[in-house]
Design a protein that fits this description.
four-stranded mixed beta sheet
């Protein structure tokens, strides 16, 4: 069932009341119901005692119910806590199922294992992890492939099949998306891959911009241009590093302009590769508006991993694309600026600049 189909199913009060009576979990998120005699509202599958129909009023969202003067019931809050634990456990089992499977299980298979409809499972999985089951499987397979290719005793063919590809052709169709280069090049530490780069100056000091054939793969800030270049060489140990030409200098100018005024945005493709967890964190960072800040804990909550605050901080530290993936907008819960890969003072300047340029 698609989101549109689910919404259409629960548009009438009659259908909604039927869902409340049957405590239909598929109706959760489609509407809530308020009880006139108690002044509380609940989700359709709530375990609260069923009210009389004459005392029930329906709202499309919890926000509408609260605007009408209703409050969440204690039972609803308890249900949410228990349901959250149940969902987290269910999704964790699905992740283990994906990771242990020889080939990525289909959405239907995962949903059947969870005893849910494919639509409902897809929604729950994405809400908990921040990515779809397919994206999680793809990131896991890419990680497994990189690990296998990093082993000197594993052939490329063995690595392909161990990572869950049932044919060489299926792998090579997806190899550049997964690795950013051909498997042989990856195994050789990027040998044969071409990375163009240029080093310039901006108000924050030296800036290095590097681009693979997929997009911007590094924006680094520092005081010493030579140190930035050595950092790039360490990241792409065997790639062919090529100084940018005049056309590339124009791209660098765009990046510098973006660093000077992040609120204008950067309309250039990024070459972003990391673990499944890192990519979830980086995607969440890109959704933080200029001129605002969030805590590491808030990012952890947004990606469905509220206890992984330290891991979120580590993912921020692993980010090599400054400003475009705005880890500078993440602060400690008490508002302290804390660490930044390119220096706390640069982080402070970026935040102050964005605060001034926002209306």
């Amino acid at each position: 069932m698609t989101s549109t189909q689910a919404h259409a199913r629960f548009t009438s009060d009659e259908a909604r009341w039927q869902a409340v009576q049957s405590r239909d979990q598929q109706a959760d998120g489609q509407f809530v119901y308020g009880v006139k005699t108690t002044g509380v509202y609940c989700r359709p599958s709530s375990s609260a005692r069923l009210p009389q129909r004459k005392n029930v009023v329906f709202f499309d969202t919890a926000q509408q119910a609260e605007a009408a003067g209703y409050r969440a019931s204690r039972r609803a809050r308890a249900d949410r806590t228990a349901a959250a634990d149940e969902r987290a456990d269910l999704v964790a089992r699905a992740c283990r199922q994906i990771e242990s499977a020889q080939t990525p299980p289909s959405l239907d298979e995962l949903a059947a294992q969870a005893n849910m409809s494919p639509f409902h499972f897809h929604r729950v999985f994405k809400a908990e992890t921040g990515v779809t089951p397919k994206a999680y499987a793809s990131a896991w397979r890419a990680r497994k492939l990189r690990d296998e290719l990093g082993s000197s005793v594993t052939s490329i063919t063995d690595a392909i099949y161990t990572a869950g590809f049932n044919s060489n052709s299926r792998f090579y169709e997806a190899s550049e998306q997964l690795l950013g280069m051909r498997a042989g090049e990856y195994r050789a530490g990027g040998q044969g891959a071409v990375i163009r780069f240029a080093i310039g100056q901006c108000s924050l000091g030296a800036i290095l911009v590097a681009q693979s054939h997929r997009g911007i793969c590094a924006i680094m800030l520092g005081d010493d241009p030579d140190m930035l270049l050595r950092d790039l060489q360490d990241q792409f140990a065997r790639a062919q590093l090529v100084g940018g030409d005049a056309a590339f200098e124009h791209l660098v100018a765009q990046v510098v302009g973006f660093v000077e005024a992040p609120s204008v945005g950067l309309n250039l493709p990024l070459d972003v590769r990391g673990t499944a967890f890192q990519e979830r964190v980086w995607q969440a960072l890109r959704e933080v508006p200029a001129g605002t800040t969030v805590s590491y804990g808030q990012i952890a909550e947004r990606i469905g991993a509220p206890t992984a605050v330290r891991a979120v901080a580590q993912a921020c530290g692993a980010n090599r694309i400054a400003v475009a993936i705005p880890c500078h907008r993440v602060v400690r819960r008490d508002g302290d600026i804390s660490g930044y890969r390119w220096g706390v003072e640069r982080k402070r300047q970026l935040l102050e600049r964005e605060a001034i340029t926002q209306p």
